[in-house]
Amino acid sequence: MITLLPRVLRALERFHAAHPWDHNAHYHRQILRRLPRRFGSALDVGSGSGELARLLAARAGAVRGIDVDPTIVARARELTAPAAPVTFTVADALKEMSPGPYDVITCVATIHHLPFSDALTRFRQHLAPGGTLVVVGLYRPRSGSDRLIDAVAIPSNVAMALIKNKGRRSPRPASMTAPTRPATMTFADIVRDARLALPGVRLRRRLFWRYTLVWHQR
């Protein structure tokens, strides 16, 4: 099974290229369930085309989305209604983050591009008392349980792709033009470092090669 899995994943990558769907957006509703119904301010790190930031704006007084990719930030601005309480900025998450503090900080499929512990420390420093940090991240599979989750994710991914692409004729959404890279940390590494940076943090492996991290500032 383990020796066959990389071949299956490569075949799945080819299938996904022909039947694209947004794995990260799949978790947006789960993120919202972990947040208060109303809050003052939010920061979305690695905001991409702005979908999550716009969802946060339905609950927040003000939302700021930051991303290093100017092209995707421009696209986020185009897709956002002028009256929405959302701003998008080209910025480095660690060097140019607005001081806040923020009641909510979200980070989806971005933290593996950053020094992990430094990023969590930076998020903690910018989170208001009582605030919530939610991260959806990627990890490098290594353990037997990782491989088992991968095996379950494969047919689920195919089913989701077929459902979401059924009858679709619209153009694909704008994609990132900044360089991307695969995750290098295992889930065990992530748990170890996250617990050191954020005492009381909760982490859980998820389908589709993701994990969730939730932490509340006291």
Question: Mind sketching the topology for me?
Answer:
Layout (H helix, E strand, L loop, with lengths): L4 H14 L9 H6 L5 E7 L5 H7 L2 E8 L2 H10 L6 E5 L11 E7 L7 H10 L1 E12 L5 H22 L21 H11 L4 E5 L3 E7 L2
Parallel strand pairs: 1-2, 1-4, 2-3, 4-5
Antiparallel strand pairs: 5-7, 6-7
Helix pairs in contact: 1-6, 5-7
Task: Name a few traits of the molecule.
alpha/beta; Rossmann fold; 7 helices
Structural features, described:
The protein has 218 residues and is of the alpha/beta class. The protein has a single domain (1-218), classed as Vaccinia Virus protein VP39 (Rossmann fold). The chain contains seven helices and seven strands, in the order ααβαβαββαβααββ. Strands 3-2-1-4-5-7-6 form a seven-stranded mixed β-sheet.
Radius of gyration based on Cα positions: 17 Å
Q: Helical segment tally?
A: 7
Choose one word for the global shape.
Answer: globular
Total DSSP E strands? 7
Global structural class: alpha/beta
Order of adjacent strands in the largest pleated sheet: 3-2-1-4-5-7-6
The string of secondary-structure elements, in order, is HHEHEHEEHEHHEE
Query: For this structure, what is the CATH homologous superfamily?
Result: Vaccinia Virus protein VP39
Number of domains: 1
Q: What's the CATH class label?
A: Alpha Beta
CATH structural fold name: Rossmann fold
- Main beta-sheet annotation: 7 strands, mixed
The proportion of residues in beta strands is 15-25%
CATH architecture: 3-Layer(aba) Sandwich
Rounded mean pLDDT score:
83
Give the low-confidence spans: 157-163, 169-173
Instruction: Please estimate the helix content.
Output: 25-40%
Report how far the terminal alpha carbons are from each other.
44 Å
Oligomer: single chain
